[in-house]
Amino acid sequence: MKKFINNIDSLLEESLQGFAKAHADIVNYNADPHIISRVKPTPSGKVALISGGGSGHEPLHCGFVGTGMLDAACPGQIFTSPTPDQMLTAAQTVESGGGVLFIVKNYAGDVMNFEIAAEMLDCPNATVLVNDDVSLAKDHSTGRRGVAGTLIVEKIVGAAAERGYDLMACQALGERVNQNTASMGVALTSCTVPALGKPTFTLAENEMEMGVGIHGERGRSTLPLTHASEIVEHIADIIQDELKPALGQTALLHINGFGGTPLLELHLIYQLAAQYWEQRGVKLCRSLVGNYTTSLDMAGCSITLSLLDAEMLELWDAPVHTAALRWGC
Amino acid sequence: MKKFINNIDSLLEESLQGFAKAHADIVNYNADPHIISRVKPTPSGKVALISGGGSGHEPLHCGFVGTGMLDAACPGQIFTSPTPDQMLTAAQTVESGGGVLFIVKNYAGDVMNFEIAAEMLDCPNATVLVNDDVSLAKDHSTGRRGVAGTLIVEKIVGAAAERGYDLMACQALGERVNQNTASMGVALTSCTVPALGKPTFTLAENEMEMGVGIHGERGRSTLPLTHASEIVEHIADIIQDELKPALGQTALLHINGFGGTPLLELHLIYQLAAQYWEQRGVKLCRSLVGNYTTSLDMAGCSITLSLLDAEMLELWDAPVHTAALRWGC
Q1: Are A34 and A98 in a shared domain?
Q2: Is B215 a catalytic residue?
Q3: Do A267 and B58 touch (CB under 8 A)?
Q4: pLDDT digits 0-9 by tens, A308-324
Q5: Ramachandran region of residue A143, left (φ > 0), alpha (ψ -120 to 50) or beta?
Q6: Which of A281, A326, B16, B28 has the most CB atoms within 10 Å of its CB?
Q7: Residue A263: helix, strand or coil by DSSP?
Q8: What CATH number is given to the structural domain containing A231?
């Protein structure tokens, strides 16, 4: 394992300190328990958005804390759920009279710990469960995983909260975005979790893992590595079949790198995926290409299509000021 | 080699098409020769800033085209200099009466081709040569290489041009930023150039390449991989010795990932480097952490310190609207 590390036990702590110092104009850092919260206080009466999950997916979620997106994030250890005391501390830090909306990716540990926090919390709260990964069947025993579509939920609901939507309206909007968002990933290599010190899985030089999760979980099948066009068509067919966009439907196309794949290749994937949907009459009105929901150093990417109505589009365009997404302010 | 590719010969073309489509609100794409230029026309009389270099370093330079930074970029083939016809076409596209400033990283091919273009150009033009890589000695036979500090030159001079600085003032400012900027990198793995199909160099599991260039050129020495703190101190000592910042000096600290290193580790490196200079009385007033000047999929990073006076700081903070850097607008 070749990584920049002093000590596996202090890696997350030192990294969060660095993140908070590099972005001191946007975030505060609470060391015990680990919380990243916005510097600019949550306006009185605004719904406070809190997300979190295992670390190793940076910039998700801490990089999305700031005006117009999350009020706080709870980073767990690498690929490990945060604990309820983190959510409770986060809520105490940012709740400002509008209640708390938890945005939770569908993983058993995250769901359980956010549920415990929700039950203990003495203010109005609600949860949006994100499960945009269509590589698993809809009726899969643990449900579908929450992956790169999560940031779209966080961005759109973040803008709505900033505009004064109440808790129930934010929750309903988050569920609507989630239902209209589908993602699927493919890995060319495994990631290496520092505490494990070796790749999570192995792939031969001519193989790719289709439908991979953001922790390197196996998805649909190990397939022979093929041309980028075929890979994109394989994934896009599954997303298309899931969302069935109407002719003329406006949509956001998000190509997300898992960490180890160069932007050069991600833009190639974007080009191919954009052609796919343009040929099917989808109007790609917004785009996002880059490493946003990563899996440490895994090579690979995911494709996310999110169908946007006029309200969602306006909220996507609304000002956001975070470490990793920034426009309009 | 495991990459998302259809065909090595069409990779750059397809990737540029995707980049331009994903950022159609910011850039135009000219296919022959390859040019990325700003959508919003260069204001009349403004100095037109043009940069370029081999591809494979994305988002450098195409990702920095837009209001407040570059007017155009000339992407060469991967790790290959762009050709004079690209610079000439770029100049014809964006020159608006204020002349052209070329910002060129110090590599023999780039320098030669930009010089040829400068000689052929029939409008006032000047060049800033960036050579911020202090891993090589000042009197090295080919001079020092231009690396991650280039974006700092492009950002600050871009803001100055937008404010109406004339050609000579922009050039002088660019040289001042370059002289006050020092960078040095370390690689944990090689990158793999698609046309080559195998790693450029090999490192043992317990080795790192200290002073590596952004094409994987060997720098100072192959050393045993050690703790992040020792790596940072090694690099920071060389930068400190070069720039000799005064007590209380304001500076920008830029941690640049080479592509294959997770943000989690880059923020750890930031934390250690920030501690180093804070202990030496440097006031780190601005920060930039992420993959900005990459080397395809190479794991590793560089540390850049840029001493900023009040003018440079104000210009760094000025609005910028590009694919990869965006604030204030």
Answers
A1: yes
A2: yes
A3: yes
A4: 999 999 999 999 999 99
A5: left
A6: B16
A7: helix
A8: 3.30.1180.20
Which residues between 105 and 134 in chain B have a beta carbon less than 8 angstroms from any beta carbon of chain A? none
Q: Is the ipTM of this complex over 0.95?
A: yes
Look up the domain containing B199 and give its range.
181-307
Q: Coil, strand, or helix at residue A64? A: helix
* Interchain pair B228, A259: CB under 8 A: no
**Contact between residue B27 and residue B38 where contact means Cβ atoms under 8 Å apart:** yes
When pLDDT is averaged across residues A225-233 and rounded to a whole number, the result is 98
| Residue tagged 């804390």 (tokens) | A65
Does A329 fall in a domain?
no
Residue of A7, A190, A267, A284 to mutate, testing the B interface (most B Cβ within 10 Å of its Cβ)? A267
Q: Do residues B117 and B43 both lie within one domain?
A: yes
Burial readout A162-193 (b: 16 or more C-beta within 10 A, e: otherwise)? beebbbeebbbbbbbbbebbbbbbbbbbbbbb
Residue B36 to residue B233: CA distance in whole angstroms: 38
Any A CB within 8 A of B260 CB? yes
CA distance A69 to A90: 15
Query: Has residue B325 been placed in a domain?
Result: no
pLDDT in tens, B10-64: 999 999 999 999 999 999 999 999 999 999 999 999 999 999 999 999 999 999 9
Number of domains in chain B: 2
Residue A93 and residue A46 in one domain:
yes
Q: Do A22 and B267 touch (CB under 8 A)?
A: yes
What pairs with residue A119 in β-bridges? none
User: Does any domain span residue A252?
Assistant: yes
Residues A170 and A198 placed together within one structural domain of the fold: no
Contact A272, A305 (CB under 8 A): no
